[in-house]
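Notebook entry, structure prediction.
Reason for the run: the old model in the group folder had no record of what sequence produced it. Starting over properly, with the input documented here first.
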Amino acid sequence: MKDHVLSFLLNRVTPSIVKAEGIYLYDNRGNRIIDASGGAIVCSIGHGVEEIVETASEQMKRVAFLFRRAFRTSELEEAAAKVCDTTHGDMDRVFFVSGGSEATETAIKLARKFHIDNANPSKFRVISRWQSYHGSTMGAASWSGFTSRRADFTPYLKDFVHLPPTYCYRCWYGKAPETCHLECAQALENEILCLGPDTVSAYIAEPVSGHSLAAAFPPDEHFKRIREICDQYDVLMILDEVISGVGRTGKWYAYQYHDVIPDIIALAKGLSAGYFPVGAAVVRAKIHDTIANKSGVFGSGHTYGGNPVAASVVCRVIDYLKEHRLVERCAEMGNYLADKLETLRSHPSVGDIRGKGLQRGVEFVRDKETKAPLDPQIHFSQQIQDEALLRGVHIESSFGCDRGQAGDMIIFGPPFIITKAQIDDLIAVIDETISFVEKKIGF
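New structure, fully documented this time:
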């Protein structure tokens, strides 16, 4: 039968999955695969949880679709309340959308609308960082700094400002942790002053990076300084927790490691644990109240935003995480995974291992001393992904951490239900796979 699927990789036939259960995927040839990346770091509670399936089914029978502009449902109200509760009251209102790119774009729109209604209409600029990733729609791609995912579409992108990344392993300021003076945070104030504080609307960053830097995170005190700068110049602080949010790092949200409260957070992925397309922009009370008390209108959204089935799934997923103490389990298994990953440092190609909770990354290099990257033509990380899959483990590879021109990485994001024995199994496969690819390329 002719293949009519337009794939991400057009000249590659990917495995056909016929069943997913727990941390495992099963293809049409009978192979069992450990889903060590949880899809695209999505499937936090595991595959095939019957309670979630039943929740979605029952909601579809009651109300499958309503248009948010005209109606709301009790499920939507409950989902918003549950999300705000997981922030311990830091956040007050939730605008549900269909995915991560919509969530970050909505966050930026909310920031703009806040400044307009707060009598600062000149504030429109967005500051982000290189080697960041905030989504694939044109707006989200514009403030992303993921070079390879921007390249083909650059003519269509808005020219936003990008600062050096918060990337301690390859610090753009040439600093080591013991000599760091938070130069990457201070860069924000410098840029605001250069652009003019009256023009800057928002700063957006990932508290723990996704695929662009494979779980890199900033130094201690970084976000406290960012918070101070944003407050000083009336710039909204937006944290993209599309990947790191809803438990992935061992806390409900990664910002909770830093003793700061952002103005807006963008969520998706773990919000439904992969059981239904959903995302959200979650805001502090001052954002909502300013808009509500002035214009009273936030004219944005897409057809499926606020979908009642998505809302029901969000409610059940949050309850499931609490009932089974899976956020706490994520922290515990994350520590175990980190310890097991450390055993990979004996490989000559392994340069850095980083991350929090069950969001972990490995960066590969040609030389550990100089941190020189591997030749991009080798496609080292893609080879690791391909060879691991042949051995029964799916991980995600990435490229471009060294200023977008080179740098191989893999990223782990397994379901929170993973066991120590299963971690042992997957690390054994990764260990064998790295050795195989190193030998293959004559390392």
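Summary: The domain at 51-323 is CATH 3.40.640.10 (Aspartate Aminotransferase; domain 2).
The old model has been moved to the deprecated folder.
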